[in-house]
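I'd like us to work through together how a protein chain folds, taking it slowly. To get us started, please write out a protein record for me. Go ahead whenever you are ready, and we will take it from there:
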Amino acid sequence: MAADCCQVTTTVATRAEAERIAATLVEERLAACVQIAGPIASVYRWKGAVENAPEWYCYCKTTRARYPALEARLRALHPYETPEIIAVPIVAGLSAYLAWIEDSVR
C-alpha cells in the first residue's frame, strides 16, 4: 500500500495562494490533504539572478495513480511560470493512514 502513495510538494508566494490551491486539490479529490507550512526563506537562481523570497510550502498527500491529474491541476492553478512540483514516494507509514489517502482520492 505504501508504494501506491506519494507526497507532492510545491511552494507559493503567499498563504492565501497556498490555501486556495490546497482547498481546490482536496475538493477535487486530487489530494487527501494538503499541509501548509511557512513562511520559509527560499534562495534560488532565476533567469540569471540569485533571488531571495519568502514562500509557503504545500505538502500534498495523494497516490501515484492520481499524480498526473494533480500535477496538471496544480500547473493550472499555480501562479509561477515554473513551479516546484516534486513527488516523492511514501515508502512506509501507518496502514490505516495510507488507506485513508487512497480512499480520499478515489
Notes: The two ends are 14 Å apart (CA to CA). The chain has a mean pLDDT of 96.
